[in-house]
Amino acid sequence: MPTSLKRRFTLPKRMQGAARSWLEEADRVPRKPRLASSVALVRDAPDGTETWLSYRGGESPLGVVGFPGGSAENADQDTFDWFGPSVGQWAEILGTEDYALARLHVVAAIRELFEETGVLLAGSDESVVVEGTTSAEWVRAREALARQDISFADLLAKRGLGLRTDLLRSLVHWVTPDFAHRRFDTRYFAATLPVGQTPTLLPSKGVWGQWVSAREVMAERDTSALGDVIGEADTRGLALPELLVPATEIILAKMGKAKGCIAYLSVKRSNHLYQAHLIEEDGQLYLEVEAPGAVAPPTEALRVVGP
What is the pTM of this model? Predict the structure, then answer.
């Protein structure tokens, strides 16, 4: 009968210290996760769907390598011109009755995508998308936004632009494991690359960013191919599970199987809240994710550690 499907992931070495400390603590109280949004930018290519991945240093809850994204900010509550689904419709899409929360995640997604890649989901009306966002003027605007010298709302208002929220698609809702020192409550979205725009790294922060084939990345999952290309001290020689959080890996796997961007973005997804839990078996630590509505294959008994 239908039950939950449990999937196990390798616990990256960088997380094992925090995991062991969590197990040793008598009174385990998880740190409150920060609200965050992330956007999987996609485009069609001859060898399948491509997505933009970037290096994320500093123990990011989104992984060493991941999609553009980050924490929501207070300024994301500012007033914006808004094109596309209403805030109420977005609340329904995201499966929440909290309109302010839904709005915050949508704004943060568009802002983070622009700040990290220069791709801007905005236009002067519901039929127009801005082009040419790689100019020196736009790069200066991104840097000012990153330094919080200017708010995203002011940046757009001065240019007569509003948010094209219709260009976003909701993917999935994830919360960082309880034991992590830095935790995110993340809404993942997807968007196709707008015509006339090209993703670029933010000069002051970017280290590595590149279009990759989702299918090829997953085919090389157990190798260090991607980590070696990035070439950083915490990526070289490491297989994909050491670089990605489970959310990113699952999204990439599904993206790699899709027959193009339209097919991928058209899939109807549930609003199930996903969270990887700590599992210990024979002295080894793993992350286990439970997905609803699937038929679980026979598995050995596992001991779940923590709530």
Answer: 0.92
